[in-house]
Amino acid sequence: MDPLVYMILVFTFFPAVLWTIFKDNGLSPYKTLIPFYNYFLWNKLIGKPLYWYLLLFFPFINVFMVFLMIVETAKCYQKYDLGNQALAVIFPVVYLPYLGLSAKEKYLEPSKRRVIKKSTLREWVDAIIFAVVAATIIRMFLFEAYTIPTSSMEKSLLVGDYLFVSKMAYGPKIPNTPIAFPFVHHTLPFTQYTKSFVEWIKLPYYRFPGLGKVKRNDPVVFNYPSGDTVILERQNEDYYRVVRMAEQEAKYRFGTRYLPGMGRKMIWEQYHVTSRPVDKRENYIKRCVALPGDTLQIIDQQVYINGQPGFNPPAMQFTYRIITEGRPLSQRVLDKIGISSEDAELYKAYGVLPLTADKAQALEKVPGVLKVEKNLMPKGMWSPDIFPFDSTYRWNVDNFGPLYIPKAGDVVEINLSTLPLYQRIIEVYEGNRIEVKGNQIYINGEIAKTYTIKQNYYWMMGDNRHNSADSRYWGFVPEDHIVGKAVFVWLSLDKDKTFSEGKIRWNKMFRIPK
Q1: pLDDT grade, residue 341 (50/70/90)?
Q2: Rounded to an integer, what distance in angstroms lies between the CA atom of residue 375 and that of residue 118?
Q3: Would 379 be classed as within a structural domain?
Q4: Does an H or E element contain 287, and which?
Q5: 44 backbone dihedrals φ, ψ, rounded to 5°
Q6: Among residues 100, 259, 326, 388, which is most buried (max CB within 10 A)?
Q7: Mean pLDDT over residues 86-108, rounded?
Q8: How far is CA 465 from the centre of its chain?
């Protein structure tokens, strides 16, 4: 059965747990099984206004409303203390039938209940619980606040932009690890490495229906695909890149005594390494440049999708070499062209800056600037850090592909040549075991010539093309990693300025990312 159908059925007939309570109050218990009417009678039983009932028809808000109705039901049986109300919410299938069955428990109409004056502490506790539960549901299923930490999307989205990410845009996901400390991602506050979640309960991937699907050029937030394994002392680095570098170091150090895996062993002995479930991996934001079923190619920095030139964001940046008369560019010039000091490499007569085409033309006119030239890696120059990390594919950031982006149901050919492209999909994202014996490839112990892709994949790239850790460095982004769509920037702060110097970028606030 489809999980959504199952959840709808459970929610529709949940009032069946009130069977004994309905019977205790002279109502036919069979009415707990009548969809919609059962909730109407329950709402009437606890003496709440009609809008409570109407709120039950709003997805995700209805979950919160049911919690409130359970608490109000407990109050009808004079359960005013926090402990009993918590038991009712956590174990409703046991606690609510008990209230109706027990001779000691008596129902009292809401209008006849005595007014209980809460202590200040209890009022604060109730308010905090209410706020935490409501905010958690909103954050989990509707939208979440997000801050741009790096310059990978400049100048479309800036470091210091505060934005809202819509979970409803593509459909909210059920969290893989539902038991977690609220309002933090993967690490407890005031600790360095302590996890904010436990894996006692692990839920499979499921996405509720959304308002639409991922489209080309959407600014998408997703869980970092290479973040399944993390070096705690070096969390801002890609674990797999660190291991590849360690393997190269081990080859050099041990020579003929080198064995595959020595570099990885060195890393595990030197650092604390941990794993993270999908929902607790770092959140990244990039632009979706290719969809499942597309063929992507980059030729001299121009992205092509299915043979046609792709969309070039107006604020797209590349790295430029700057030659000056002998003096580095001043901070005033950097501020004028909107370049962060940490993104600039400046020397006496030479510099490297990320620039849009317009800013590059403007910089050419600055007194003392002799030359502004875009960096370009030629076709055929292999970059070992570029996916799929195999010299067979002599690709780099500026000349890449062609590469087909797999979609669910595709049957791809598996051999020693194509394995670097699909190995991570097969092993990590789709949970299979691969072995290579001679020229034969085994998947789950059986010889494999083909493999059927189980889910859709996407290709994400930053608008700051030479300063973006994106799909060119880790490969495909699985559909189960997609979090939501950036929909609104509500605040923009310049990290290089004080408030008196214009820290708030008023012209960048209250805008829709494009």
Answers
A1: low
A2: 68
A3: no
A4: strand 283-290
A5: -70, -40
A6: 100
A7: 93
A8: 21
Range of the domain at 413: 409-454
346 forms beta bridges with 351
181 phi/psi in degrees, rounded to 5: -70, 130
DSSP string across 230-264 = EEGGGTTS-HHHHHHHHHHHHHHHHGGG--TTHHH
Structural domain includes residue 245? no
Cα–Cα nearest to 218, from 152, 286, 282: 286
Dihedral sign, Cα of residue 57, residue 63, residue 67, residue 70: positive
Q: Angle formed by the axes of helices 61-76 and 120-141, to 10°?
A: 150
Instruction: Establish if 363 belongs to a structural domain.
Output: no
* 409-465 pLDDT, tens digit each: 999 999 999 999 999 999 999 999 999 998 899 999 999 999 999 999 999 999 999
The tally of domains found in the chain comes to 2
Is residue 507 included in any domain, yes or no? no
SS (H, E, C) 444-507: CCEECCEEECCCCEEEEECCECCCCCCHHHHCCEEHHHEEEEEEEEEEEECCCCCHHHCCECHH
Q: To the nearest 10°, the Cα dihedral for 185, 405, 170, 513?
A: 80
